[in-house]
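Example 3.2
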Amino acid sequence: MQSDARLMIESDRPPAGTTTVTAPYDGSVIAELPVGDATHVDEALAVAAATHADRDGWLPLHERIAILKRTAALMEAEQEALAVQAAREGGKPLIDSRVEVARAIDGIHLCIEVIRTEQGDVIPMGGTPAGAGRIALTQREPIGPVVAVSAFNHPLNLIVHQVAAAVAAGCPVIVKPAEDTPLSCIRLAELFREAGLPPAWCQVLLTDSHASAEALVTDPRVAFFTFIGSARVGWMLRSKLAPGTRCALEHGGVAPLFLAADADLDAAVPAAAKGGFYHAGQVCVSVQRVYAHREIARTFAERLADAARAQVIGDPTSAETEVGPLIRPREVTRVHEWVEDAVEAGAERLAGGDPLSETCYPCTVLFDPPADAKVSTEEVFGPVVCVYPYDDLDAAIEQANALPVAFQAAVFTQDMDTALRVYRRVAASAVMVGDHTAFRVDGMPFAGLRESGLGIGGIGYTIADMQVEKMLVLKSKEL
């Protein structure tokens, strides 16, 4: 068991208490970690605000690049340890946690690429007589203290997207990791410090209460708030932000995948299985609703059910495991209740549907649940995929668009016009053709629409959010 009495903030005060981190698979205790109260929050914010206010002490571009390079090298030296830790604390299988660590390292390199090349613009000034004799340019400055609140499902890579981006942007950052998965975040902060980042530039704070966490987020010293988690919490916190605090929110969706009658099922079935059952469905763009043309719907659903039954479910730290536990036992209970309600209302259960243990739920396939069932209208965040037969594609798209959430979507078809019809008509920020809804690389824009989020994620976009383009206008008779 890991035990650490230190708070990772610039404070001499003792912690306000401790929190216990347990493994979601078997409930074993992994760590006892200190937590901070409202006074610790104030101290951390004071340090961050003072660090930003000292403009002579800002980290120059070359120094930020050097720190990021060294951090990536340190991460590469302990990739397997980082993957095992992420798998153990978050429940994502080791095979996928290894991929997450590789993505996180690449994300550090993406930060370097962005800040090396994107530092400002030249603004045209001579288009009108008023602008004659002037030249204008912009340079990027850090926006100010960043507060990052993160989610459990990608305990290392999400921290890179929020915290490494802040370091790259030149902003002091205070991060509150998910209470279920703080260890990956803490280790990354330690690696940043080992790489030469002064402690004031990256503080980690687990809070003793929701009130303390809210005080951290809503303080007027916060320049930018980045949140990944539930829509209920994210939108509530946004409503309480201090005037002038900018924010980005990333919530979940109920991702739709469309199968035309000509879809290649040999490609669609494994893609839907991966996109739906990856990390036990605990992904904000996980495949949840599959709209399949009636000619192929039953065949597809039965083949997907076969794939569901073939998944190896168990200990996430085992190299053979393909699907791990849900993050908490109560989530198993909730997902099962939703599945049972859908079956009672008329859905056909083709695979899964009965808890394997207090912590693991089987990969489940439901055929034609009612449109008003919870599995059809709310984010399951579990390994459940619903298949709906359709006769008219436009009607299926209209049904998919009827929810207040919208994120990523996908379509399988051999016909370009069909693919483009889905692309043009579905409510989504991104549409994958020939792939599942959960596809992502870390440099691409990643944006929840409607109630699914606010702003655009992705390394470069986040760095831009954390900076201000400050303009300089020079007047000269020589221009």
